[in-house]
Amino acid sequence: MPETYDYDLFVIGAGSGGVRAARLTALGGKRVGIAEEYRYGGTCVVRGCVPKKFMVYASEFSHIFETARGYGWTVDNPTFDWPTFLEAKDVEIGRLSGIYAANLGKAGVDTFHARAVLKDAHTIDMGDKGTVTAEKILIATGGRPWVPEDLPGIEHVITSEEAFHLPQLPKSIMIAGGGYIAVEFAGIFAGLGVETTLVYRGPNILRGFDDDVRAHMAGEIEKRGIKVVLGCQHESIEKTETGLVSHLGNGMTLETEQIMFATGRVPHVKGLGLDKAGVELTEHGAIKVDGHSKTTADNIWAIGDVTDRMNLTPVAIREAVAFHETVFRNNPQAFDYEAVPTAVFSQPPVGVVGLTESEARKACGEIDVYLTRFRPMKTAFYGDDERTLMKLVVRAADDRVVGCHIVGPDAPEMIQLAGIAVKAGLTKAQWDATCAVHPSAAEELVTMRDKQTPQSMSAG
Ligand code: NDP
């Protein structure tokens, strides 16, 4: 290797993917630098998965108090103090971000707190932090919230980024969108006692998920007090003396104290100098990569949300490992995007892995569907109407379980384990040969005997 470069690898972006790639490569004896313009840990740790989960935990208490009362506890007027929570959350996020920075240091990675811009395929400019050169470059700059800029009044809305730092909890909020972030934050705000309305343009929330999951979720979140308005868009937003008025496409107007747009995220590529380095974008604005995360420039790779493949933290980490193995260990690897388990931390939460029923019908031909809806024993005890949904999609030709879908308490925990069975390609008979754990909700996954018939489906 020519000694003319400052680094063997320079990583732009210290989120989950970038940090993993930088550490592995430095631990392998290479000279590695990393630039981060904000805080170590990226979206997941600083303004995504981790703080979101703390907010979910905080908001779940309202339901927990209700359950406690159902079991005979006296829970007198519990109150929630948002500033206390925010302070504790920020301390913990600071601690976790510090661990990321410390681990980079321990691995021998040079860290630059700077915005990095490519000057050419080997040169990275970091303003007052200087200019460095690298033989190989990895771009892992993640994504940013996207809002429809042309919507009149859009300047008054917040995104998930601001939702983590609101000075006060609003009395009411309208959330636009029907994806992961919209549904998760609707649950968070409603649980914290905020009057919450979800407005989604499509026929049902969580597009891309199994239709039974979508219908079940819409019903369950309404039971938790969230007003769901489907099939309509914002036409404009107006700021008045008392709040923000949403003018919706169906003629409805609604005033709330806050409006949050969760209308998707876009790859963070602006101002990176990609054109100077020969890195091309897809038509959707993501960095174009091949199966080994290599960009259109020979010495530059990209992983994580900036490539807009499967925008999940564990996927970015796996892409980082595959990149490291391929590029630095002469062991070409490509991450396998099939049967990746995922969870929506809504209330109740969702856990899914594999194919939806409609995907399976297209991909597998004949399929069998097993579905159960039941009241979990914990909340049925005091007459709560919450229901859990579990669904297995089975390829009839070989009895293989190709999809598992759960809505209900602990669904994310269950789906991690069910994901092993789906990924391993186990058959329904093998699932059924596994003895149940009783009494649990998860036991339903190995005790579903009756296939859905057209009659049982129409009975719902
Ligand atoms: P999603 O892509 O999941 O959802 C965006 C939502 O906004 C969709 O409902 C979409 O509608 C709607 N939308 C898009 N454009 C408009 C518009 N112009 N007007 C009105 N509505 C619009 O994005 P999120 O921001 O929720 O999340 C981004 C990604 O981050 C997720 O896809 C996921 O990969 C990841 N993520 C994962 C989490 C987890 O693992 N728990 C948590 C949070 C995020 P339509 O469906 O009609 O397109």
TrEMBL record:
Which note does the record give on the cofactor? Answer: Binds 1 FAD per subunit.
What residues sit in the active site?
H438
Main EC class the enzyme belongs to: oxidoreductase
Q: Does the keyword Lyase apply?
A: no
**Which branch of life, at top level?**
Bacteria
Q: Name one GO biological process term.
A: glutathione metabolic process
Q: An example Gene Ontology cellular component term from the record?
A: cytosol
Give the signal peptide range.
none
Catalytic activity, as annotated:
2 glutathione + NADP(+) = glutathione disulfide + NADPH + H(+)
Q: Cofactor(s) for this protein?
A: FAD
Positions contributing to FAD binding: K53
Q: Which InterPro entries match?
A: FAD/NAD-bd_sf, FAD/NAD-binding_dom, FAD/NAD-linked_Rdtase_dimer_sf, GSHR, GSHR/TRXR-like, Pyr_nuc-diS_OxRdtase, Pyr_nucl-diS_OxRdtase_dimer, Pyr_OxRdtase_I_AS
Key words, A-Z: Disulfide bond, FAD, Flavoprotein, NAD, NADP, Nucleotide-binding, Oxidoreductase, Redox-active center
Residues covered by the FAD/NAD(P)-binding domain: 7-320
Q: Which cysteines are joined by disulfide bonds?
A: C44-C49
Q: Boundaries of each Pyridine nucleotide-disulphide oxidoreductase dimerisation domain copy?
A: 340-448
Q: Where NAD(+) is bound, by residue?
A: G177, G178, G179, Y180, I181, A182, V183, E184, G264, D305
- Molecular functions per Gene Ontology: flavin adenine dinucleotide binding; glutathione-disulfide reductase (NADPH) activity; NADP binding
Q: What is its EC number?
A: 1.8.1.7
Q: Which family does it belong to?
A: Belongs to the class-I pyridine nucleotide-disulfide oxidoreductase family.
**Quaternary structure annotation from Swiss-Prot or TrEMBL:** Homodimer.
Q: Explain the purpose of this protein.
A: Catalyzes the reduction of glutathione disulfide (GSSG) to reduced glutathione (GSH).
Q: What is this protein called?
A: Glutathione reductase
| Organism encoding this protein | Brevundimonas abyssalis TAR-001
